[in-house]
Amino acid sequence: GWFALPIMITVTSYSQELFNGETGVLLKKLPLKSFHPEDTAFFPAKNGSQKRIPAALLPPYEIAYCISIHKSQGSEFEHV
Length: 80
Prior knowledge:
With 80 residues, the chain is mostly beta strands. Helices cover 5% and strands 35% of the residues.
């Protein structure tokens, strides 16, 4: 099975066009404690599609079930 985790990038990666404060979803194969090569993150792209990035290539991130106002700055949410 799979599990979806909301994540927030904590260090900008210009090469992957992922920026500090950007949020996405990490699809993780169960069990959660194990790394799986199929684990993949998805982030909204400017053209309305999605950026798909293998989890092994992600810059540092945090689980983002709840984020502070300070950390959300720069995320440019359309709705809160």
